[in-house]
Amino acid sequence: MRKLQGFLRAAFGNQGLRVVPAKRNPEDAEMHLGERSIASIVVDDEDGDRSFALAMKIPVERAVLQDYLRRLFENDKLRIVPRPKKNDSVELNSGDDYLGVISADDPKGHSYTLQVAILDFDLEDY
């Protein structure tokens, strides 16, 4: 979890992020900012390869999505980028680095979910 926390702190540009065991299943984790849990992290050990699936609900509309994430993580490098040939989702980047996909939870776009896939080798430097 220490390596995962280091990776997420670097990816989102916020040293205040913490990764803690999930309350419901201690094999999984939660990402906290301050005292608040902001994302769930599911661990997958299939086929001997460990990976992590981060899911974060974002309770805002498309027009303020980028500003909301920049304020939340205190990181002006976070950018919303259109996806080529896709209009139902956008990418989240930190500078030029790809972080994940943000998809609408409802057809009217009143809330979104950020999904980040993290592979075990992504954590090697942390």
Describe the structure.
The chain is of the alpha+beta class. The protein has one domain. About 15% of the residues lie in helices and about 45% in strands. It has 2 helices and 8 strands; from the N terminus they run H-E-E-E-E-H-E-E-E-E. The chain has helices spanning about 1-10, 65-75; strands at about 15-20, 30-35, 35-45, 50-60, 80, 90-95, 95-105, 110-120. Strands 1-2-3-4-8-7-6-5 form an 8-stranded antiparallel sheet, covered by helices on one side. It is globular and about 35 Å long. The N and C termini lie close together (about 10 Å).
Characteristics of this structure?
alpha+beta, globular, 126 residues, single chain, 43% strand, eight-stranded antiparallel beta sheet
Q: Summed up, what is this model?
A:
With 126 residues, the protein is α+β, with helices and mostly antiparallel strands. Helix content is 16%, strand content 43%.
Write the SSE topology.
Layout: H1 2-12, E1 17-21, E2 29-33, E3 36-44, E4 51-58, H2 65-73, E5 78-82, E6 89-94, E7 97-104, E8 112-119
Antiparallel strand pairs: 1-2, 2-3, 3-4, 4-8, 5-6, 6-7, 7-8
- Which strands sit side by side, in order, in the main sheet? 1-2-3-4-8-7-6-5
Q: Give a count of the beta strands, DSSP E runs of length 2 or more.
A: 8
Order of helices and strands: HEEEEHEEEE
Q: Sheet with the most strands?
A: 8 strands, antiparallel
Tally of distinct domains: 1
Which structural category fits the helices and strands? Answer: alpha+beta
State the share of residues found in helices, binned by percent. Answer: 10-25%
End-to-end gap: 10 Å
Strand content is 35-45%
Mean pLDDT: 93
Radius of gyration: 14 Å
Number of helices: 2
Could you list the spans in which at least 5 consecutive residues all have pLDDT below 50? none
Write down the overall geometry: globular
